Structures are given as structure tokens and as C-alpha cells.
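Predict the structure of UDP-N-acetylglucosamine 1-carboxyvinyltransferase.
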Amino acid sequence: MALPWTLAVVQGLLVRLVLAGLVADGETVIGKGTMVDRGHADLTSRFTALGADITREEF
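Done. Here is the predicted structure for UDP-N-acetylglucosamine 1-carboxyvinyltransferase.
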């Protein structure tokens, strides 16, 4: 059975990517951050409150 690639599934995977980047050594760059934001209110502030060092750059 194929996994349905709904928007909710993609958003969940992107948040997991951010979490993986936070625990990895070095710098992690994630493009298209707007997809991560969809469905998650003020995600940057939430992770920063937990001690994450996140910088957002608008292109």
C-alpha cells in the first residue's frame, strides 16, 4: 500500500528534518522554510525557547 503524500505528511517530515538538524553537529541549512511554517504557529520562537540557535533569512 502506497503512503498518501498529503500536506500533513509532508509537513510532519519537514519538522522532523528541522529536529534532525538541531541535534546534528555543525550548521544545517533548510531551504523553503515556508513549508515548515505551514501548520505550525511560530515554530522558530518555539525552538529558540528550547535553546536552539535558529536564523531565518528571507530571499
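The helical segments are 7-23, 33-37, 43-49.
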